[in-house]
Design a protein that fits this description.
Elements: E1 4-9, E2 15-20, H1 26-32, E3 51-54, H2 67-74, E4 83-85, E5 98-102
Parallel strand pairs: 1-5
Antiparallel strand pairs: 1-2, 3-4, 3-5
Length: 113
């Protein structure tokens, strides 16, 4: 059992507290808990569809975005200083309790009604 937890605000505004594993990408955790992140490129940082807003208290725990990540973020509408690609963020014990909000445009495609 993990002692690290991630708090995810989904596209509808609902909060989810989920177990996270040390060393796993935030995108993988969100996807594996079925919280509806698109993540089309599977974590290569090449599509921008895993865009999240990171709680300001946790932003500085991560390396600054690479040039490639910045290029993807620049192509997305509505980015903020807390915008990151969740595939580029690795969970670790210092991130316990972090809150991320799924950004517009990162939703999985809606199933046909």
């Amino acid at each position: 059992m993990s002692d690290i937890f991630l708090n995810v605000i989904d596209h509808k505004g609902a909060a989810h507290r989920v177990e996270a594993l040390d060393g796993w990408r935030v995108m993988e955790i969100i996807r594996d808990w079925g919280l509806g992140v698109k993540a089309e490129c599977g974590g290569a940082g090449a599509c921008g569809t895993c865009h999240v807003f990171v709680d300001p208290d946790f932003v500085d725990l991560f390396q600054p975005p690479s040039d490639e990540e910045l290029e993807q973020l620049d192509a997305l509408p509505g980015t903020t200083p807390q915008s990151r690609l969740s595939c580029q963020l690795l969970m670790r014990p210092e991130c316990d309790g972090m809150v991320v909000r799924l950004a517009p445009g990162s939703e999985q495609d809606q199933e046909a009604a």
